[in-house]
Amino acid sequence: MATLHLLSHSPFNDGRLDSCLLLLSDDDGILLTGDATYALQPGSQPARALQALPNSNTLFALLEDLQARGLDDQPARIVVVDYPGFVELCTRFDKVNAWL
């Protein structure tokens, strides 16, 4: 059963991203929202960790949160979604786990 993991906290002062990566299963996806999008800063340790994931793990980021933080240029691996895309993702995966 594939799970969509929702992250919204900055990986630079919070351990949720690291914990999520440890528990990630094949075919799970990660959606970065809010301050979690800072994990995509080029050259950062969180960005390297995300890029190192197997291709079976899809990485998503919320467009509005990327734009609000000036993170417009993303690697091709990142699937950028808007709010309707966010809702669609929640229905595509078997489970949704919000890392509150």
Can you give a write-up of this model?
This is Sulfurtransferase complex subunit TusB. InterPro entries: DsrEFH-like, Sulphur_relay_TusB/DsrH. By secondary structure, the chain is of the alpha/beta class. It has one domain (about 5-100): DsrEFH-like (Hypothetical Protein Ychn, Chain: A, 3-Layer(aba) Sandwich), CATH 3.40.1260.10. About 30% of the residues lie in helices and about 20% in strands. It has four helices and five strands, in the order E-H-E-H-E-H-E-H-E. The chain has helices at about 15-25, 45-50, 65-70, 85-90, and strands spanning about 5, 30, 60, 80, 95-100. Strands 4-3-2-1-5 form a five-stranded parallel β-sheet. The longest helix is centred in the C-terminal third of the chain and has 10 residues, at about 85-90. The mean pLDDT is about 95.
How are the elements arranged and paired?
Elements: E1 3-7, H1 16-23, E2 29-32, H2 45-51, E3 58-62, H3 63-68, E4 78-81, H4 83-92, E5 95-98
Parallel strand pairs: 1-2, 1-5, 2-3, 3-4
List keywords for this structure.
100 residues; 4 helices; transferase activity; single chain; DsrEFH-like; transferase; Sulphur_relay_TusB/DsrH; 5-stranded parallel beta sheet; 31% helix; alpha/beta; 5 strands; Sulfurtransferase complex subunit TusB; globular; Hypothetical Protein Ychn, Chain: A
Which CATH architecture is right? 3-Layer(aba) Sandwich
Terminal Cα separation, in Å? 21 Å
Number of domains: 1
Identify the CATH class.
Answer: Alpha Beta
Mean pLDDT, as a whole number?
A: 96
Global shape: globular
The CATH superfamily is identified as DsrEFH-like
* Strand order, largest beta sheet: 4-3-2-1-5
Which strand-content bin applies to the residues? 15-25%
**Distinct helical segment count:** 4
Structural class by SSE content? alpha/beta
Specify Rg, calculated over alpha carbons. Answer: 12 Å
- The low-pLDDT segments are none
CATH domain topology: Hypothetical Protein Ychn, Chain: A
Could you state the order of secondary-structure elements as H and E? EHEHEHEHE
Record field, number of beta strands:
5
Q: Mind describing the biggest β-sheet? A: 5 strands, parallel
Helix content range: 25-40%
GO molecular function, one term: transferase activity
Keywords: Transferase
InterPro entries: DsrEFH-like (IPR027396), Sulphur_relay_TusB/DsrH (IPR007215)
Protein name: Sulfurtransferase complex subunit TusB
